[in-house]
Amino acid sequence: MPTTEDLRKEEKIDKVIPFIPEGDFYFSKGVQAFHKKKFDIAIKWIKKAVEMSPNEALYHCQMSIIYTEIGAYHLANQILTKVLSEFDDSYIDCYYLIANNYAHLGLLQDAKKYTKSYLEKSPDGYFKEEATNLLTVLELDEDDDWLFEEEDELLIYQETAFYHLERQEWEQALILLEEMMTIFPNHIAAKHEYSYALFFSGEREEAVTLEEQWLKEEPQSLFSQTNLAIFYYEQKQAELYQKHIASIKNVFPIHEQQKLRVATTLARTGLYREAYDRFMSLSKSELKGHVSYYYWYSLASFHVASEAKALDLWKEGSKRHSILKEKTHPWLHE
């Protein structure tokens, strides 16, 4: 038979209201993390908020803003477009946010279209000044709309192919690159990215043959030199590898993308000191959208600087690129 004390305990338990967090709780945690620039944590909290309250458009919009902050512009626009389709014009600010993302991607026609839509729908809206300034910039070259259209299409191909290459999704990249080579035959990078994807998809002999052929046609091609250095290194053909890496060591490009190509090639082939020096001279602000920047820079830092620096780079890269969270530190594979 229960005692008086037992009955009191049972009564007390009955009066306790369990704490079950709702969407607002997770959302506020996510916003706090966002303001502290802890983007990976912010994404986790906002995702929980969305799970709890999937019909709360504000949560989706905040998620898109975080993705914009880390450079995932396509992903941000997917979310914003979904919000507009489900909530009509209840969240007009989405038009400006989409325009801003398209501008970052270089898709100027799309950016202009969404900026105009925002100003038409909300002439005195929160982003009025920003949208007006953006439209002014976009309309500077209004007479060259036909160039914009071709440029936009090329950039879409580039961004999508780049996405698959960075994630080592070779088959998807090859399909896009084949189309690019047909539609934009003068776009030199596409054919070299094609041979690179071909090599790592297993068609090594064909990839090497293509690059050797292209190098004969253009002996100064940095694309061919870097690809062949990597190909021969992977195939343990030391003499041929040394021939191409020697040429690369004497090249100091002007453009950041080419500088990154040289740095990653040196790191990929075990020349960590040379790679580290090249990485140190790169502009992080221009290359933070590249997974390869963080992956190979961290490996070079591990061998030349310190494990602490390597880990810091890896942590920073993981905040910007979720794919790195799925990988182990590269120095553990050696």
From TrEMBL:
UniProt key word Zinc: no
Keywords recorded for this protein, A-Z: TPR repeat
Gene3D superfamilies, alphabetized: Tetratricopeptide repeat domain (1.25.40.10)
SMART domains documented for this protein: TPR
InterPro entries: TPR-like_helical_dom_sf, TPR_rpt
Start and stop residues of the TPR repeats: 23-56
Superkingdom, taxonomy of origin: Bacteria
Protein name according to UniProt: Tetratricopeptide repeat protein
Annotated organism of origin: Aquibacillus koreensis
